[in-house]
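Query structure, 129 C-alpha coordinates:
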Protein backbone atom coordinates (compact mmCIF):
# COMPACT_ATOMS: atom_id res chain seq x y z
CA UNK A 1 0.00 0.00 0.00
CA UNK A 2 1.27 3.46 -0.88
CA UNK A 3 0.70 6.25 1.60
CA UNK A 4 0.22 9.39 -0.47
CA UNK A 5 -0.99 12.06 1.90
CA UNK A 6 -0.38 13.24 5.43
CA UNK A 7 -2.76 15.38 7.44
CA UNK A 8 -2.06 17.40 10.54
CA UNK A 9 -4.90 17.20 13.09
CA UNK A 10 -5.87 20.79 13.94
CA UNK A 11 -8.38 22.23 16.44
CA UNK A 12 -11.10 22.50 13.77
CA UNK A 13 -10.80 18.75 13.08
CA UNK A 14 -11.80 17.68 16.60
CA UNK A 15 -15.08 16.39 18.01
CA UNK A 16 -16.41 17.49 21.45
CA UNK A 17 -14.40 14.61 22.93
CA UNK A 18 -11.24 16.37 21.68
CA UNK A 19 -10.30 13.57 19.30
CA UNK A 20 -10.33 13.54 15.50
CA UNK A 21 -13.92 13.94 14.24
CA UNK A 22 -14.90 10.83 12.25
CA UNK A 23 -16.76 12.87 9.64
CA UNK A 24 -13.64 14.93 8.97
CA UNK A 25 -11.58 11.78 8.48
CA UNK A 26 -14.17 10.33 6.08
CA UNK A 27 -14.15 13.58 4.09
CA UNK A 28 -10.34 13.42 3.84
CA UNK A 29 -10.57 9.79 2.69
CA UNK A 30 -13.31 10.49 0.12
CA UNK A 31 -11.32 13.35 -1.41
CA UNK A 32 -8.10 11.35 -1.45
CA UNK A 33 -9.80 8.37 -3.07
CA UNK A 34 -11.53 10.61 -5.63
CA UNK A 35 -8.23 12.28 -6.57
CA UNK A 36 -6.55 8.89 -6.91
CA UNK A 37 -9.36 7.59 -9.16
CA UNK A 38 -9.45 10.77 -11.27
CA UNK A 39 -5.72 10.48 -11.93
CA UNK A 40 -5.78 6.73 -12.59
CA UNK A 41 -8.84 6.81 -14.85
CA UNK A 42 -7.82 10.12 -16.49
CA UNK A 43 -11.32 11.54 -16.13
CA UNK A 44 -12.66 14.32 -13.91
CA UNK A 45 -16.11 12.70 -13.77
CA UNK A 46 -15.69 10.10 -11.05
CA UNK A 47 -18.23 9.51 -8.30
CA UNK A 48 -18.15 7.52 -5.08
CA UNK A 49 -20.57 4.59 -5.40
CA UNK A 50 -19.99 2.33 -2.42
CA UNK A 51 -17.90 1.96 0.72
CA UNK A 52 -17.64 -1.27 2.69
CA UNK A 53 -17.77 -1.39 6.49
CA UNK A 54 -16.15 1.49 8.29
CA UNK A 55 -14.56 0.50 11.56
CA UNK A 56 -12.84 3.18 13.65
CA UNK A 57 -10.15 1.18 15.45
CA UNK A 58 -8.18 4.02 17.05
CA UNK A 59 -8.19 7.78 17.07
CA UNK A 60 -5.93 10.80 16.88
CA UNK A 61 -5.63 13.95 18.90
CA UNK A 62 -4.68 17.54 18.15
CA UNK A 63 -1.16 17.77 16.77
CA UNK A 64 -1.02 14.17 15.56
CA UNK A 65 -0.11 13.45 11.96
CA UNK A 66 -2.17 10.86 10.12
CA UNK A 67 -1.31 9.31 6.78
CA UNK A 68 -3.73 7.97 4.21
CA UNK A 69 -2.82 4.86 2.21
CA UNK A 70 -4.57 3.56 -0.91
CA UNK A 71 -4.29 0.36 -2.89
CA UNK A 72 -6.15 -0.88 -5.95
CA UNK A 73 -8.42 -3.87 -5.43
CA UNK A 74 -9.65 -4.13 -9.01
CA UNK A 75 -10.34 -2.32 -12.24
CA UNK A 76 -13.89 -2.95 -13.49
CA UNK A 77 -15.53 -1.79 -16.71
CA UNK A 78 -16.86 1.50 -15.38
CA UNK A 79 -15.60 1.19 -11.82
CA UNK A 80 -12.36 1.24 -9.88
CA UNK A 81 -12.36 -0.45 -6.48
CA UNK A 82 -9.80 0.73 -3.94
CA UNK A 83 -8.88 -0.08 -0.36
CA UNK A 84 -7.79 2.44 2.23
CA UNK A 85 -5.90 2.47 5.51
CA UNK A 86 -5.30 5.49 7.71
CA UNK A 87 -2.52 5.35 10.29
CA UNK A 88 -1.59 7.61 13.16
CA UNK A 89 2.10 8.36 12.61
CA UNK A 90 2.57 9.34 16.28
CA UNK A 91 1.09 6.23 17.91
CA UNK A 92 1.74 3.86 14.95
CA UNK A 93 -1.85 2.68 15.32
CA UNK A 94 -4.23 1.99 12.46
CA UNK A 95 -7.13 4.40 12.81
CA UNK A 96 -9.37 2.99 10.11
CA UNK A 97 -9.38 0.44 7.31
CA UNK A 98 -11.91 0.31 4.49
CA UNK A 99 -11.66 -2.90 2.48
CA UNK A 100 -13.47 -1.68 -0.62
CA UNK A 101 -14.39 1.73 -1.94
CA UNK A 102 -15.97 1.64 -5.39
CA UNK A 103 -15.64 4.69 -7.60
CA UNK A 104 -17.55 4.90 -10.89
CA UNK A 105 -16.64 6.77 -14.04
CA UNK A 106 -19.65 8.61 -15.46
CA UNK A 107 -20.34 10.33 -18.75
CA UNK A 108 -21.74 13.82 -19.27
CA UNK A 109 -25.23 12.35 -18.75
CA UNK A 110 -24.23 11.10 -15.29
CA UNK A 111 -24.54 7.44 -16.33
CA UNK A 112 -21.70 4.91 -15.89
CA UNK A 113 -19.19 5.07 -18.72
CA UNK A 114 -16.41 2.53 -19.49
CA UNK A 115 -13.03 3.94 -18.49
CA UNK A 116 -10.88 1.61 -20.59
CA UNK A 117 -8.21 1.14 -17.90
CA UNK A 118 -6.99 -2.24 -16.67
CA UNK A 119 -3.93 -1.57 -14.51
CA UNK A 120 -2.23 1.02 -12.36
CA UNK A 121 -0.34 3.67 -14.32
CA UNK A 122 2.29 5.90 -12.81
CA UNK A 123 2.32 9.56 -13.73
CA UNK A 124 6.08 9.45 -14.41
CA UNK A 125 5.52 6.77 -17.07
CA UNK A 126 2.83 8.86 -18.75
CA UNK A 127 5.19 11.83 -18.90
CA UNK A 128 7.77 9.75 -20.81
CA UNK A 129 5.27 8.96 -23.61
C1 LIG B 1 -16.40 12.00 -5.03
C2 LIG B 1 -17.83 12.22 -4.50
O1 LIG B 1 -18.02 12.58 -3.42
S1 LIG B 1 -19.15 11.83 -5.59
C3 LIG B 1 -20.66 12.20 -4.68
C4 LIG B 1 -21.31 11.00 -4.07
N1 LIG B 1 -21.68 10.02 -5.08
C5 LIG B 1 -22.75 10.18 -5.90
O2 LIG B 1 -23.43 11.20 -5.91
C6 LIG B 1 -23.07 9.03 -6.83
C7 LIG B 1 -24.61 8.80 -6.93
N2 LIG B 1 -24.87 7.56 -7.64
C8 LIG B 1 -25.06 7.53 -8.99
O3 LIG B 1 -25.06 8.55 -9.66
C9 LIG B 1 -25.24 6.17 -9.63
O4 LIG B 1 -25.54 5.19 -8.65
C10 LIG B 1 -23.95 5.74 -10.41
C11 LIG B 1 -23.83 6.55 -11.69
C12 LIG B 1 -22.68 5.89 -9.56
C13 LIG B 1 -24.01 4.24 -10.76
O5 LIG B 1 -25.19 4.02 -11.42
P1 LIG B 1 -25.79 2.50 -11.44
O6 LIG B 1 -26.93 2.49 -12.38
O7 LIG B 1 -26.00 2.04 -10.05
O8 LIG B 1 -24.58 1.73 -12.08
P2 LIG B 1 -24.43 0.23 -12.52
O9 LIG B 1 -25.38 -0.69 -11.83
O10 LIG B 1 -24.42 0.25 -14.02
O11 LIG B 1 -22.95 -0.09 -11.97
C14 LIG B 1 -21.85 0.69 -12.37
C15 LIG B 1 -20.62 0.09 -11.73
O12 LIG B 1 -20.71 0.23 -10.31
C16 LIG B 1 -20.61 -1.04 -9.69
N3 LIG B 1 -21.54 -1.06 -8.58
C17 LIG B 1 -22.86 -0.78 -8.61
N4 LIG B 1 -23.39 -0.91 -7.38
C18 LIG B 1 -22.38 -1.27 -6.56
C19 LIG B 1 -22.30 -1.55 -5.18
N5 LIG B 1 -23.37 -1.47 -4.38
N6 LIG B 1 -21.10 -1.89 -4.67
C20 LIG B 1 -20.00 -1.97 -5.45
N7 LIG B 1 -20.02 -1.69 -6.79
C21 LIG B 1 -21.19 -1.36 -7.32
C22 LIG B 1 -21.04 -2.06 -10.77
O13 LIG B 1 -20.48 -3.33 -10.52
C23 LIG B 1 -20.47 -1.40 -12.02
O14 LIG B 1 -19.09 -1.65 -12.11
P3 LIG B 1 -18.39 -2.21 -13.48
O15 LIG B 1 -18.94 -1.43 -14.64
O16 LIG B 1 -16.94 -1.95 -13.30
O17 LIG B 1 -18.73 -3.65 -13.56
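Result returned for the query:
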Amino acid sequence: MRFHTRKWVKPEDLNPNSTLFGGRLLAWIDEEIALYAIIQLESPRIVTKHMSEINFRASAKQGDIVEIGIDVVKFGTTSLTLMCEVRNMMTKETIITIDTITMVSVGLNGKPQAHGKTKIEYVEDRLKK
